Amino acid sequence: MANKSDFSERRAFDETKAGVKGLVDAGVKKIPTLFHHQPDKFDKATNLGNHVIPVIDLANIDKGPSLRQDIVHMLREASETWGFFQVVNHGTPLSVLEEIKNGVKRFFEQGAEVIKEFYTRDKFKSFIYNSNFDLYSSPALNWRDSFACYLAPDAPKPEHLPLVCRDILLEYGKHMMNLGTLLLELFSEALGLDPGHLKDMGCTEGLIALCHYYPACPEPELTVGTTKHSDNDFLTVLLQDRIGGLQVLYQDQWIDVTPVPGALVVNVGDLLQLITNDRFKSVEHQVLANHVGPRISVACFFSTGNRLSSNPYGPIKELLTKDNPPKYRETTISDYSAYYEKKGLDGTTALTHYKI
Question: Which domains, ranges and CATH numbers included, belong to the chain?
Answer without folding.
Answer: 52-354 (2.60.120.330)
